[in-house]
Amino acid sequence: MSNSSHHNAIVLDHLTKYYVQNSQIPPAVNDITLSIKSGEVVGLLGLNGAGKTTTIKMMCGLVTPSAGNVYLNGFHVINQRRQAMQQIGVVLEGARNTYWQLTPYQNVMYFARLKGAGTTNLHQYAQTILHMLGLDTKQHQPVSDLSRGYQQKVAIACALICNPPIILLDEPTLGLDVIAGRAIKHVIKNLVEKDKKTIVITTHQLDLAEQLCNRIVIVHQGKIIVDQPTHQLLSLFKPYQYQFKIAEYISPEEYHQWPDTIITHNEYYSVLTRNTRDAQEMYTFIEHIKNKGLSLISATPIALKLEDIFFRLTTDQERI
């Protein structure tokens, strides 16, 4: 593959990784093939041990594949390592991305020179990144003295210092409080909307993936089981549940008359929540309500979140 395949920022070609060869232990990553276009924001999701982090590490050259190939903007990660590494900035899970005894500014300058960045305007560009991430007032404090949220911002700054076109973020908000997590989300959103970066995010915070990613890839037991645009994936499962508001009170003694239905109450009405496979089943249930002489106030579809869909797919309840 040559650099002419610039429209595909990332290509994984039959990627496989065995940590223990010649054993009954299945591969951590099992024959994954995936292409990600320039400017896409992809959520790489899966349960613990699904193969997400191993895939990210093979993408950035930290783990050697047992089989298959990785290309970053056309450059082979193993055979053209120097050119391939110039295409990416990486933030790995945990605190392994920076040197804690150094300050944010020293970290950013160190990684810039490590990656071969030119010295022209480097100080100015470092200041721009530190300011963008809200680190300008913290830039001369040791990273060890900073909060977890600021430490994560330093890691992102180091990933951005050479202005790579591809960013790999492995659990970028893990362990952060709500405020710090929201700040990191804002940073990622800016990278998407203003800088048009190609971004791959692994996360267990599925609301983050739903808000930021335009494509979702779900890995289960080392294999891709879902690869869909986010809006299409969500639409496949809508409407899955409906809430029916009833004017009358339904007593607990009557609950047995409403199988597969969750019944709750408030001051003004009863609420019946149930799954519906299609529109016809919804209309049949409405007729059932009317036949019991009850007054239907409304029937409202419940939009499922990505978290609900992820749970169903990875627990083998459903497959696309």
UniProtKB/TrEMBL annotation:
<comment type="similarity">
    <text>Belongs to the ABC transporter superfamily.</text>
</comment>
<dbReference type="Pfam" id="PF00005">
    <property type="entry name" value="ABC_tran"/>
</dbReference>
<feature type="domain" description="ABC transporter">
    <location>
        <begin position="10"/>
        <end position="246"/>
    </location>
</feature>
<dbReference type="InterPro" id="IPR027417">
    <property type="entry name" value="P-loop_NTPase"/>
</dbReference>
<dbReference type="InterPro" id="IPR003439">
    <property type="entry name" value="ABC_transporter-like_ATP-bd"/>
</dbReference>
<keyword id="KW-0067">ATP-binding</keyword>
<dbReference type="GO" id="GO:0005524">
    <property type="term" value="F:ATP binding"/>
</dbReference>
<protein>
    <recommendedName>
        <fullName>ABC transporter domain-containing protein</fullName>
    </recommendedName>
</protein>
<keyword id="KW-0813">Transport</keyword>
<dbReference type="InterPro" id="IPR050763">
    <property type="entry name" value="ABC_transporter_ATP-binding"/>
</dbReference>
<dbReference type="InterPro" id="IPR003593">
    <property type="entry name" value="AAA+_ATPase"/>
</dbReference>
<dbReference type="GO" id="GO:0016887">
    <property type="term" value="F:ATP hydrolysis activity"/>
</dbReference>
<keyword id="KW-0547">Nucleotide-binding</keyword>
